[in-house]
Structure formats: C-alpha cells, structure tokens
Write a structure and sequence with these properties.
Length: 71
C-alpha cells in the first residue's frame, strides 16, 4: 500500500523537489499538491510534507528525498 504524500505548493516552489514527487507519482504513489498544509512558518524554513497525515521535514534535499521515498 502506498503512502499518502501531501505537499504544499509554496514549499515545493521554494525548495524545488518536484522531480522526486514526479518520480513517486510515476511509480504509482499517492502524491498530491495542496494549496496549504497550515504549517506556514516551518514551510518557509525547510522542506516539509505530510505523509499519511504526519508532518515530516528534512534538513537538506538528500535527507528529505530519503524520507519521501521511505529509504
């Protein structure tokens, strides 16, 4: 069963991890962009997403991609 990944459009624009999301979506992942996840202060400071309803974040691009991919 695929994880439900939800990302804020503004966070995606700021931190440029769209290629990773596209890769997950192409593999059949449940990936959706949301207008806002209501975590605006953190959203401006670091990469973050909601995975199965839990907010996750990564200190850098590599760490965040590993979290999204479940590595």
């Amino acid at each position: 069963m695929s994880k439900a990944i939800r990302c804020c459009v503004n966070n995606l624009r700021q931190f440029q991890y769209g290629a990773t999301l596209q890769e997950l979506a192409d593999a059949g992942g449940d990936v959706k962009l949301e207008r806002c996840l209501s975590f605006c202060i953190g959203c401006r400071q670091q990469r973050q997403a909601s995975i199965d309803g839990k907010l996750v974040c990564g200190a850098d691009q590599d760490e965040f991609e590993q979290i999204l991919k479940g590595d």
